[in-house]
Design goal:
The complex is a heterodimer of chains A (about 450) and B (about 300).
Chain A: H1 10-24, E1 27-35, H2 41-51, H3 57-69, H4 78-81, H5 85-90, E2 97-102, E3 106-114, H6 120-127, E4 132-138, H7 145-156, E5 161-167, H8 176-189, E6 197-202, H9 226-232, E7 245-247, E8 250-252, E9 264-268, E10 273-275, E11 279-283, E12 288-296, E13 299-301, E14 303-305, E15 309-314, E16 325-328, E17 334-345, E18 356-361, E19 364-378, E20 383-385, E21 396-409, E22 420-424, E23 431-437
Parallel strand pairs in A: 1-3, 1-4, 4-5, 5-6
Antiparallel strand pairs in A: 2-3, 7-16, 8-9, 9-15, 10-14, 11-12, 11-16, 12-13, 12-15, 17-21, 17-23, 18-19, 18-22, 19-20, 19-21, 22-23
Chain B: H1 8-26, E1 30-33, H2 38-51, E2 60-64, H3 70-83, E3 87-91, H4 92-97, H5 115-125, E4 130-132, E5 149-152, E6 180-183, H6 191-201, E7 212-219, E8 222-225, E9 239-245, E10 255-258, H7 264-273, H8 291-298
Parallel strand pairs in B: 1-2, 1-4, 2-3, 4-6
Antiparallel strand pairs in B: 5-6, 7-8, 7-9, 8-10, 9-10
The chains are: A alpha+beta (about 450), B alpha/beta (about 300).
């Protein structure tokens, strides 16, 4: 009755094996898009989903029906991503929407976010997990404040790859001069951003030029299409492979006959590689031990790396609990109670200097006090404002905090997972800020 | 000793296991909502991986509409028994008998919506502070807006416009007395990922997902399975066809697909070629454009 009906025909088996390997070869790429309907963002996403067959007939029927009901001539692809009634009614994207599609090479997760300044917090949220950001520029308008804002957020959140799509090329006669001028203008600002890898692609999302298929209207462009870039951009070095970090999430103690003395530390590797037999240090106790085993369900691994979730056992019996961190004994993170960070403020209630907040960092749950507000960032002008210290919703600022217990951290630049925190309002329990440790 | 290759499925798996462990660590009385469908089977498989060699440290909770495929129930009972996991069953029929829920009338009557009442009662009775569900963001547009950790007020309601921002892999499960969380560990999986993963890890599933002969009838373009409590309209006729279930839920609102797929490989091929979503056959979603959003606000899965 419980039946997987495995094929017994050897030829079929071989084919099945090959297909199975096909799935195993796929990589995962998370990317974010920021923009409004006017930038052609929905059209672009619609195009990617369409051409990779990720939009289904029943979804299309449903949005066609509601487009008609609203009296719109064309099918409004924004209705696909705007999932909430309020969003559809107001014709705006309020929240981050996640969309999925796959090609034979990669599976993609899109964090689709609204682009206006009042939605900075949503952009920051979508950017936090992305490997790549698509920044849309309208070829008619060139680099505008919004372009800089999106680029700044990509740089602040340390998204490793940025693809600047210069869209609506069809409306500027597919002009190479226009494209070059915009690219040059962007590169003039680039030193202000901390982005490792920037690509420029001239596209027309509406007509599909250089989105999935190469355009024959821009023979002067010899770079890759957007889809090719998404499928091939090298993400192997996006993760930190050097600094071994293992925040302990949960202590596994079976207390069964078979595993009577088993005491495993469950968690997700947030940096580097761990090997059986390796010397490790446990924080905050500072005690050293050796890795006895790395377990993953019924398998025992010799080695494990970021971002695997595993269970580690140690040679010595030491007291370890949730919130502790296992690290390589020769490579220890920073340990401090005084932390400087860049934050994005999320809440209607402004940030309070000397205010106390809950703080989450890896698997650690503690409290902190805001000891200094250094400056507020004007993200449209890319200028630091040292005089304005009132931090409101959607503002980005540099602050200092003092924590109730030491944090074991890396700079956000070196490790996005051991370098990030969220602040929580102790009264309402709301997540009020995202912080990137400097 | 072996090395695990990090493909997209292993990466999704790792993310989900991390979320499930966070639930066990942050909440006092969590439960895993288990329907016997493929998503809840995968979620339970991930939970077993998360805590192995210890047992899963929370019970399975099934909200039983009474309108099930018998095979799903047998599968559910076996799985709980074999893995030594506590299974709690709450019946929609009890909510109806107690007068808390009122049975829908007419040919399209379904107990699907009534499940919310039974579910919220169960959460209160069992004093659960977190209920894990197999909802996925790719299923439906309101679900695309869900957080991994989704806050519910003391009435079990979801406020989609006022959700907590969720960044990196930091999940904020703080709450006041009486409130609870719904947690969706497989948020980022697609239907295809679920099937590929079932194939990769060779996870047993009910044979309803494979082709079989069944008496069915057509309504609003969907094929529905015949069952004693299903009312047929005059124009509807029962015929026997080769079908399989693409989702398994309440019989009254879960369509079946005409299919000859009899292996996981066949199913994957069929899904790759298909042009409708799996919820396309769910009559419950077709009631209005915001049907899912409205149900979710009330406290649905």
């Amino acid at each position: 009755m419980i039946n997987n009906q495995i094929n017994t025909n050897p030829k079929q088996n071989k084919m099945a094996e090959e297909k199975k390997r096909g799935y195993l070869d796929m990589e995962l790429l998370r990317f974010t898009t920021a923009g409004s309907v006017d930038d052609g963002k929905s059209t672009l996403i619609g195009r990617l989903l369409f051409d990779s067959k990720a939009i289904f007939e029943d979804q299309l029927d449903a949005i066609e029906l509601s487009s008609k009901r609203k009296g719109e001539e064309n099918i409004n692809l924004a209705l696909l991503t705007d999932g909430l009634r309020a969003e559809r009614e107001q014709g705006i994207t309020i929240d981050v929407a996640y969309r999925y599609f796959a090609t034979p090479k990669r599976k993609f997760i899109i964090a689709d976010t609204p682009g206006h300044i009042q939605y900075t917090r949503n952009m920051v949220t979508g950017a936090s997990t992305a490997n790549l950001a698509i920044i849309l520029v309208d070829a008619r308008h060139g680099v505008i404040e919004q372009t800089l804002r999106h680029s700044f957020i990509a740089s602040l959140l340390q998204i490793p790859h940025v693809v600047v799509c210069i869209n609506k090329m069809d409306l500027v006669e597919y002009s190479e001069e226009k494209y070059d001028a915009i690219k040059q203008k962007f590169m003039d600002f680039a030193p202000k951003f901390d982005v490792q890898d920037i690509h420029f692609i001239p596209i027309s999302a509406l007509n599909g030029d250089n989105v999935v298929k190469r355009s024959d209207k821009m023979p002067w462009y010899d770079g890759a299409t957007l889809m090719y870039t998404l499928e091939n951009v090298y993400i192997g070095s996006d993760q930190n492979h050097f600094d071994a970090r293992f925040p302990v999430q949960y202590v596994v103690r079976p207390q069964s006959k078979e595993f009577h003395d088993y005491r495993g530390y469950a968690g997700k590797i947030e940096g580097g590689i761990f090997n059986v037999g390796e010397e490790i240090k446990v924080l905050p106790s500072g005690l050293n031990s050796k890795i006895k085993s790395i377990d993953f369900f019924e398998a025992s691994l010799k080695t494990a790396a970021k971002p695997q979730s595993v269970t580690i056992t140690l040679e010595d019996d030491i007291d370890i609990s949730r919130g502790d961190m296992i690290v390589n004994s020769n490579n220890v993170p920073h340990i401090s109670q005084e932390i400087n960070l860049m934050i994005c403020w999320f809440n209607e209630k402004p940030l309070a200097l000397r205010g106390k907040y809950g703080l989450k960092h890896t698997s650690k749950d503690i409290k902190c006090m805001v000891t200094d507000i250094t400056y507020k960032m004007n993200i449209d002008k890319l200028e630091k404002d040292f005089s304005d210290k009132s931090i409101q919703m959607n503002d980005i600022a540099r602050i200092s905090i003092k924590t109730t217990a030491p944090l074991f951290y890396d700079s956000y630049r070196n490790n996005r997972n051991t370098g990030s925190v969220v602040l929580i309002d102790e009264g309402t329990n709301e997540t009020v800020a995202a912080g990137m440790i400097i | 000793m072996e090395k695990v290759i990090m493909n997209h499925l292993r990466e999704l798996e790792s993310e989900s296991i991390h979320v499930i462990r966070e639930v066990a660590a942050q909440f006092e009385r969590p439960a895993l909502l288990f329907s016997g469908g493929k998503d809840s089977i995968v979620m339970f498989h991930l939970a077993r991986k998360a805590f192995y060699p210890a047992k899963v440290p929370f019970p399975l909770l099934h909200i039983d509409t009474g309108h099930n495929f018998q095979e799903t129930l047998d599968f559910r009972d076996n799985l709980a028994k074999e893995t030594g996991t506590e299974l709690i069953i709450k019946y929609v029929q009890d909510s109806i008998d107690q007068g808390k829920a009122v049975e829908e009338k007419g040919v399209n009557a379904s107990r699907n919506v009534l499940q919310t009442i039974t579910l919220l009662d169960a959460i209160e009775d069992l004093k659960l502070d977190a209920a894990m569900g197999g909802g996925r963001r790719d299923e439906e547009k309101a679900r695309a807006k869900e957080r991994f950790f989704s806050h519910r007020d003391e009435f079990g309601q979801w406020d989609p416009k006022n959700q907590r921002p969720e960044l990196w892999s930091l999940y904020n499960g703080r709450k006041n007395m009486g409130e609870h969380f719904r947690v969706f560990p497989i948020s980022n999986w697609t239907e295809m990922d679920v099937w590929q993963y079932i194939l990769m890890d060779n996870i047993p599933i009910p044979s309803l997902y494979f082709t079989h002969k069944r008496k069915v009838f057509q309504r609003d373009g969907n094929w529905l399975a015949a069952a004693p409590f299903m009312q047929l309209k005059e124009t509807e006729k029962l015929i026997e066809m080769d079908v399989r279930c693409r989702t398994i839920g309440d019989i009254t609102c879960t369509g079946v697909t005409l299919s000859k797929a009899n292996s996981l490989e066949d199913i994957i091929e069929e899904i790759a070629a298909t042009r409708t979503t799996e919820r396309g056959g769910r009559a419950d979603d077709k009631r209005s454009e915001a049907a899912m959003e409205d149900r979710k606000k009330e406290g649905y899965f």
